[in-house]
């Protein structure tokens, strides 16, 4: 789960196979103030009583791991909820960062452009040196013989060009060392699952979370100091991973639902966290600031921490899922 002064990360849920992780993004309500983080200190004693252990991986930026807080029985309940979801509910996303870089997406776009240009006879008019590259052929035809292109070719070409230009903003070295090729299955987290996660989230943050079912009454009359941004369920299969990125939230919280799957890697810090059933990984994605990270109304206040760039490593042997939610702290 991601915890930050406003945006939160989506949780990942299990759709089939063995779930690997839940992610939650949160943001504190007060601008640039990670006031809820002392909850780690306040509740560390109660965690210990429940045989939970807290390991601080880094203090700058803050990254910590909690084992034993989410017990096996709770993990099993979360898995059962995911298994019971209607097929119509668990539809894969197509506009997430990972989806933009998925090699299968480019192959699909190329196939659609080829079919459109071939059906209109336009492809044979393109120079032979471009015919093995559908997008280059389409761009040449758009400039030299636009009357030969169907509306569908224009639409596909525009979408493909825009997507590839957007992807060019990423550092190719970061992409190369992550080994990313294919995106994992990703969908929304069901409401029932959010309700089951609520007590755990309050334990970690020490305060209710606006938008998270069941936390308004948590901890008595404590006013909400965190806000939920969105929720997501991710399932990793072989050769699927994540694009290196920095979360647009103050804090990220990940809950692993199994021992299987790739590590959560922080390449700029030279460290990675292996999955373990019930393990919770929490890290800060911003430093205090009055500026919104991400530039949009729902994003967190703060400066992005480049050191927290991370990605889910390759699933090489087993299936696994990741559930995540984005949460942030409300601005004053």
Automatic annotation (TrEMBL):
Residues of the Prolyl 4-hydroxylase alpha subunit domain: 61-330
Classification via InterPro entries: Pro_4_hyd_alph
Cofactor(s) this protein requires: L-ascorbate
Key words of the record: Dioxygenase, Oxidoreductase
UniProt protein name: Prolyl 4-hydroxylase alpha subunit domain-containing protein
Organism expressing this protein natively: Durusdinium trenchii
